[in-house]
C-alpha cells in the first residue's frame, strides 16, 4: 500500500521557490492500479521521485506498507526502498548484460547466493513471459520485451508496490497492450499496489482501476475509472473516452448537403444511462432526422462508452437540440458550424485528446 499524505515538494527558495507538488493526498491499495495523468510539467515525475525518496519531499509523508519513508535515516531508507519496484520509460537495462543478468543484479547486490539467484531469475523471467530470452542481450529484444525485463528486475526483491513512470510511452500499441496485461496479472497475483504514471489516456483506460489527474502539482480530479467514464461532465471523464470521432470525411464531401445548413455536435456517452437507440429517440423528440457523421465507441468494464459527431438541421434551435440530447443522458457540445471552422474542428478531433481543464 502507498499512502501519500500532504506531500509537498518545493524547488528553490524565497522569491525563486516553485511548488511542484502541493499537498497531495493519494492512497493506492494492494491489488489496485492507480493511474496518475496530467499535462507535461504537472509534476508526475517529481511525484515518482518523491515516492522513492530520490527527491526529499519538502513536507508531508510517504508511507509504503504503513512505514513512513520520510522519517527514516538513509541506511534504513535503502532497505525500505526494496519494497518499491520501479519501472521507467528508458528501460535502464545494462547493455552488456543478458536479460537474466540484468534481472539478477538486485539479488546480487543484496548478497543472495548464486543457486537461489538462478532459481529466482528463472521464476521472474517465466513470470513476465521471457523464459526463452534469458540469454539475449537488450539489443536483441524488442522495446516491449526490454520493458518486461525491467519489470522482472523491479520484482526481484518482492516489492509490495510498483511504481511506473511512462513505462509504456514510446511502445507500439501491441507492446503496450502486453505490458498492460502483465501489470494487471501482477496486480492480481501478487496483490501489488501499482502507481502508474502516464500521459497516454488510451493506456489509462486499459490499465487503471482508479485515476488521479494532476495539474500544477495538485490532484484536481480523482476517482474510479468506471465512475469517471460515467461522468461526461468531468474533464477527466471526457478525456478518457475513446478518441473522439471525426466528421471530416463526411462533412467535406458534400454528400449530405452543405455543412453550413446544419449544426454539428460532439456527443459523448457512457453507456449505462444512455439508450442504445438514442439517435432515433433524439430525432423523434426533435421531429426531424439527426445525421450520424462519425462515431468512436468501445467497451470499458462492460459498458459502451465513446463519442459521436452528429449533424442537426440548421433550422433547429440549439437549445432544443442540446435539451433533447441531455435528456437522454448524453453530454453534448456544439462545434463551430461554418465550413472552414468545421474542417478545422475535424482536424483537431483527429488528434489524441490531452487532458485539459
Ligand atoms: N530539480 C528541479 N529543480 C527545479 N524545478 C524542477 C526540478 N525538477 C522538476 N522541476 C519542475 O517541476 C515541474 C514538474 O516537472 P515533472 O518532471 O515532475 O513534470 P511531469 O509531469 O513529469 O512532465 P512530463 O509529462 O513532461 O514528464 C516542472 O515545471 C519542472 O520544471
Ligand atoms: Mg515526467
From TrEMBL:
InterPro entries found in the cross-reference section: AAA+_ATPase, ABC_transporter-like_ATP-bd, ABC_transporter-like_CS, ABC_transpr_LolD-like, P-loop_NTPase
Q: Is ATP-binding found in the keyword set? A: yes
The UniProt record lists the ABC transporter domain at 2-241
Keyword Mitochondrion part of the UniProt annotation? no
In Pfam terms, one family for this protein is: ABC_tran
* Gene3D superfamilies per UniProt: P-loop containing nucleotide triphosphate hydrolases
The entry's keywords? ATP-binding, Nucleotide-binding
Gene Ontology MF, one: transmembrane transporter activity
A GO CC term attached to the entry: plasma membrane
Against PANTHER family, the record matches this protein to: IMPORT ATP-BINDING PROTEIN (PTHR24220), OLIGOPEPTIDE TRANSPORT ATP-BINDING PROTEIN AMIE (PTHR24220:SF676)
Protein name per Swiss-Prot or TrEMBL: ABC-type methionine transport system ATPase subunit
Organism (species): Quadrisphaera granulorum
